[in-house]
């Protein structure tokens, strides 16, 4: 039996705004301690394939009354219906915005929804909008700090799975998606993984953008960046959004990413004067010529469990610095991504998972 549960909690305490959550048992492998008490307040928890969710003050009801389709079709004014997805723990609130080219919520509302204590909790909010210039859809995204990036790699895999869900598509499908980084083409594969044509990397210093001096072909490869008195070896790559990749310091010390004090050093890269649009930063350890391990500090979102554009950018950086081949597995805190920078078309291809977490609603 499919089961849905709702809870109500306060989104922004001073204004007493209400937020309600709906969970479906889709993707759940077991519901060991779930006991229904339609009228009651009861603590319970349940397990999914990828996470453990606990909730209090919940009432529950059978999903026959509320299928995913009818749930997302609901159009009550003042209520926002959404679906939460994650790509390797990089999590997003997906909103069906196919009827308008204006985001259904403002940036400040996205900040509240992304709050992990007073909201739903997410690294960003993603809007599925009508396509432009002949594309199937447009994807826009707000970071958890409300800023709007050009692209999101894990997000676009979630986007593809979300479209398949709301369009009721099964099996292999690909879509053309207009983003701030241009045309992006995700393809849902038979095994459920999503392979994405992420387009070409941008290397010219002023286009990344960075104020660091470009070298060969004006790209910034193995340049020196002084952060807090320490001289780092960095390469700058844009995947539509800016990335600064480092394998270690200029004195030749390679990184041990597990030892890094990410929350101390990350913001200093993000807000460094050399990055006029701020930057995402990838701290990378080379395990072999086809295997990398990284931790990321994201612009506008902080430390996240994975960054798709970051994984693509760091393979480009690793190739440009002569450290790896063009096809690599990148281990992120949330799991691995397969990345290939193809010589034939100069495009980068990223393959990885995207998973539905739950359906929910929020009173705006
Ligand atoms: N996590 C994303 C990147 C999201 C945007 C980033 N924070 C930025 O501001 O550029 C990914 O998977 O690529």
Automatic annotation (TrEMBL):
Catalytic activity: (2S,6S)-2,6-diaminopimelate = meso-2,6-diaminopimelate
Pathway: Amino-acid biosynthesis; L-lysine biosynthesis via DAP pathway; DL-2,6-diaminopimelate from LL-2,6-diaminopimelate: step 1/1
Superkingdom per UniProt: Eukaryota
Coiled-coil segments on the chain, per record: none
EC number in record: 5.1.1.7
Enzyme class: isomerase
Keywords: Amino-acid biosynthesis, Isomerase, Lysine biosynthesis
InterPro entries: DAP_epimerase_AS, DAP_epimerase_DapF
Gene3D superfamilies: Diaminopimelate Epimerase, Chain A, domain 1 (3.10.310.10)
HAMAP family in alphabetical order: DAP_epimerase
Protein family: Belongs to the diaminopimelate epimerase family.
Protein name: diaminopimelate epimerase
């Amino acid at each position: 039996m499919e089961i849905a549960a709702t809870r109500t909690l306060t989104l922004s305490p001073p204004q007493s705004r209400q937020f309600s959550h709906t969970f479906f048992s889709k993707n759940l492998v077991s519901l060991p301690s779930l006991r229904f008490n339609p009228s009651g307040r009861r603590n319970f928890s349940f397990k999914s394939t990828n996470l453990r969710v606990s909730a209090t003050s919940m009432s529950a009801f059978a999903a026959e009354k509320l299928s995913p389709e009818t749930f997302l079709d609901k159009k009550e004014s003042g209520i926002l219906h959404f679906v939460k997805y994650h790509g390797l723990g990089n999590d997003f609130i997906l909103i069906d915005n196919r009827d308008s080219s204006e985001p259904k919520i403002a940036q400040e509302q996205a900040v509240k929804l992304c709050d992990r204590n007073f909201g739903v909790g997410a690294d960003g909010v993603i809007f599925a909008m009508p396509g432009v210039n002949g594309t199937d859809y447009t994807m826009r995204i707000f970071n958890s700090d409300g800023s709007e990036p050009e692209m999101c790699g894990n997000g676009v895999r979630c986007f593809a799975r979300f479209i398949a869900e709301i369009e009721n598509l099964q099996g292999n499908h690909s879509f053309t998606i207009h983003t701030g980084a241009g045309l992006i083409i995700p393809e849902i594969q038979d095994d459920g993984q999503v392979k994405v044509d992420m387009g070409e990397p941008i290397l010219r210093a002023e286009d990344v953008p960075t104020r660091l001096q470009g070298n060969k072909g004006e790209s910034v490869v193995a340049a020196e960046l002084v952060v807090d008195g320490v001289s780092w070896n960095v390469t700058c790559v844009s995947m539509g959004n800016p990335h600064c990749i480092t394998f270690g310091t200029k004195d030749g010390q390679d990184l041990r990413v597990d030892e890094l004090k990410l929350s101390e050093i990350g913001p200093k890269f993000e807000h460094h004067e050399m990055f006029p649009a701020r930057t995402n930063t990838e701290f990378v350890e080379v395990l072999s010529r086809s295997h990398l391990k990284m931790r990321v500090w994201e612009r506008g979102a902080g430390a996240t469990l994975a960054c798709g554009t970051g994984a693509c950018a760091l393979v480009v950086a690793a190739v440009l610095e002569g450290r790896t081949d063009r096809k690599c597995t990148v281990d992120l805190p949330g799991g691995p991504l397969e990345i290939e920078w193809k010589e034939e078309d100069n495009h980068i291809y990223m393959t990885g998972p995207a998973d539905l977490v739950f359906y929910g609603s929020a009173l705006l």
